[in-house]
Each structure stands twice: as C-alpha cells, then as structure tokens.
Amino acid sequence: MLRFRKKSTYLLIIFMFINSINFSHDLVQNVDAELLFEGQKALVHVRRQVELGPRIPGSKESKSCLNYFIREFDKIDDDYYPIFQEFIINNVSCRNLLFKLNPQKPNIVILATHFDTRARATKDDFAKKTPVPGANDGASGCAVLLELARVLQIKEKNLECQVWFLFFDAEDQGYDVSPGIEGWDWCEGSKIFAEHIDAYHNPEHEYFDCLILLDMVGGINLQFIKEQKSTPSLLEEIFEIGRGLDFTDVFPENPNSASVIDDHDSFLELGIPSVDLIINFWNNPDWPYHHTTRDDLTSISKKSLEITGKTVEQFLYNNYLYPLNKSYQGYKPWKFPYYIPYHGTLLLLMCFLAGIFSLIVISYYFKKSRKKGNNEISKNKLTKRGFI
Predict the structure, then answer these.
(1) Kind plus residue range of the DSSP H or E element containing 152
(2) What predicted TM-score, i.e. pTM, was given to this entire model?
(3) Closest Cα to residue 77, out of 147, 150, 160?
(4) Where are the beta strands (DSSP E) in the chain?
(5) Which of 98, 101, 206, 257 has a beta carbon 3.0–4.6 Å from 163's, enabling a disulfide?
(6) The pLDDT value given to residue 343
(7) Residues 296-327: tens digit of each pLDDT
C-alpha cells in the first residue's frame, strides 16, 4: 500500500504540474518597424469634420464631409481616387466612399468606419431632438483612416496587400431609446456595400484577408471591448499587438464582452474575417456621451486617436510589410476560430492527452492496489477461520 501511495503521489504531482501551465495568449511579437501615425494630425481631422456641422445622411454637411475626404486623399497622393456607391433610403440620397491603396495586389485588407452622425440626440437629458455633433461617434474613425492613408502611402511599395479605406453612410440612424431617423435601421450603408461588393473587386483574382472596423475610437478614457461577433483570432491578435505597444489600459487582458450591431456584421456574413474595435458605450461612466450633444471636441483625446492608429499600423506592418513580415508569427489566416495559433493548439492538445494518460495510470494503480489489499484481507479472514 505504501508503494501505491508513493507512485500515485508522483503521478498526481506531474498531473497537477501539467494542468498548472499558463497558456498565455500573448504569443505575438511585433516587428521592429517605425510607426509614423500622428495623433495630432488625426485630431485636426476630427475638428474639421465637427466644424462642418452634423453629417446627417442627405444633408449638405454630409456632402461637404465627403468632399473634405476627397481633398485630403488627393493631398496625400494622386493615385488615390474616390469610388462612390450611391443608394437611397426612404427617398434620401446617401453615399458610401472608397479609396484603394495598392490596387494591383490580389489580397485585400479593409479598414472601415462610418462618417454619418445621428440626426437626434436620443440619449440627451435636455436636447433629444438636437443632432449629435459626432466627434467620437463618426469623426474619430474617419480621422484615423485619413491619417493611416497618409502613413501607409509612404510604405506602399513594401506593403504586400491592397488596403481599402471605406467610409459608410447611414450607419447611425436606427432605434436606441427612440428612432434616429424614423423608419431607418442601423448600418444601412454597410449592408448595401456588402450586398454589391463584387462590383468593387474582381472575385476571380482578388480576395479579402480581413476587415477592421473603427467605431468610437477617439474618446477620452479609451478602452476597447471584446466584441463577441468579431473573428476571435483576429481580435485577439490586434489586442496582443496593442498590449505589445504598451497600450495595456486600452487593450486589457480581461476586457468587457458584448455583442454589438455594427458595420462588420454584413462582412462576417460573407465569410470575411472581421473585427469591431469599439468601446462600451451603453453604461460607461468613463464615456457617457453616446448619442448626446456632449459627443463634441471636449470628449476627444489625441492620445486615444494615436493609440488606435498605431495599433492598426503595427498590425499591417506585422503581417504585410516586406521583408519584416517574414519573421512575424501571427494568427493568420484568421478564419481559424480560436485565440491561439496552431503551435499553441498542438501544445495544449499534447498536455491534455498527457493529463488523460496520467488519470488512466493513477486509476490503474489505484485499482491494482485496492485489489491487492482486498486479497490480503480475504486471506487473513480465511487464516483466522482455519481454512488456510
């Protein structure tokens, strides 16, 4: 019996050790690339959009905003040219806007946001029928895309992907506590773009690697949630990249989790790996300005814009900047549904099998020892009764 206790103790210690191994998700190591994104430049873009006035679909301010984007892309490079998608919602003319970088590349990364602002501040305490300024909810994502267009164009020749800068109209007019624009749903522009996406690329020669959606990325006290419909491996990689840049408050180890209706939904339905970088906007005391008139420039942070922009920039360099990307180990292709890459999965499986084997061995020695003990008891009983 003593022998059994020793062996089982050793096996139990081994089993406990195997199960105590911490399989950290932080397996991503960022490549050493110079990040050029400037938060101050992005902040200027936010300010100029807000100064135009509310960018409600169909309004002159909405058209002025699109013209501003066109001028800014033209300043960056003549090769950027605007591609419009026009559509009508309830007799209101709307427009999505697309720019392409490296259009000769077959693989496409979509960077997306919405530029419209909500027609009614439905969560405001005093001005529920007043339009939302939309500094964070609309302008911040657009500002990050404009600045990313500038910095990525500098390294265009070394990027092994095509990048789409996609601006959606008519995202923010659905029902929260009451309708934004009566009869409108959420994400009208992205639904229509996804429905007609083949008109904007050649499906025989081009394919989509992923989509990154930026929604409310420039507010004070920025902290992204784990959006539950997002492709898990892609979202986890972006979080690890952000933490690797020391943005640990913005990309926490244990973020809040929620499922959000947003512009990435229609692309997930197409099978495109997609993530929504978004904050807790429904019960967040650190950012209580959602769909109120207080979503103005006073709620915007240059630091938040820069953190978002640099993280996305680093993601693109990690995966696509030649030759640095050759040494990078990420989770691509992101259609794999779990957080850990292949080698991590294999290690986890091996340890799981080792644990099962340990249980089998422990069970075997336990049964063997118990049988031996029962035989000795039976033998003693028979001896006492005179049979042996």
Answers:
(1) helix 141-154
(2) 0.83
(3) 150
(4) 83-89, 92-101, 107-114, 162-168, 207-214, 226-227, 257-258, 274-277
(5) 101
(6) 43
(7) 999 999 999 999 999 999 999 999 999 999 99
CB neighbourhood size of 329 (10 A): 12
Please give the mean pLDDT across all residues of the chain. Answer: 88
What is the rounded distance in angstroms from the CA atom of residue 29 to the CA atom of residue 10? 37
Query: Is residue 185 helix, strand or coil?
Result: coil
pLDDT of residue 279 exceeding 90: yes
Listed as own residue / partner, the contacts of 244-252 with beta carbons closer than 8 Å and 24 or more positions apart are 244/26, 244/28, 244/29, 244/30, 244/314, 245/30, 245/307, 245/310, 245/311, 245/314, 247/307, 247/310, 247/311, 249/223, 250/222, 250/223, 250/224, 250/304, 250/307, 250/308, 251/224, 251/311, 252/223
pLDDT(269) > 60 = yes
Helix (H) or strand (E) holding 349: helix 342-384
Backbone angles phi, psi at 166, to 5 degrees: -120, 120
| Residue reference for tokens 């081994």 | 14
pLDDT digit string (tens) for 74-116?
A: 999 999 999 999 999 999 999 999 999 999 999 999 999 999 9
Rg (CA), the chain: 28
Instruction: Give the whole-angstrom CA distance, residue 57 versus residue 118.
Output: 9
For the beta carbon of residue 275, count every other beta carbon within 10 angstroms: 27
* Angle between helices 302-320 and 232-244 in degrees, nearest 10: 110
Return the residue matching tokens 């492709």.
231
Q: Which position has the higher pLDDT, 335 or 324? A: 324
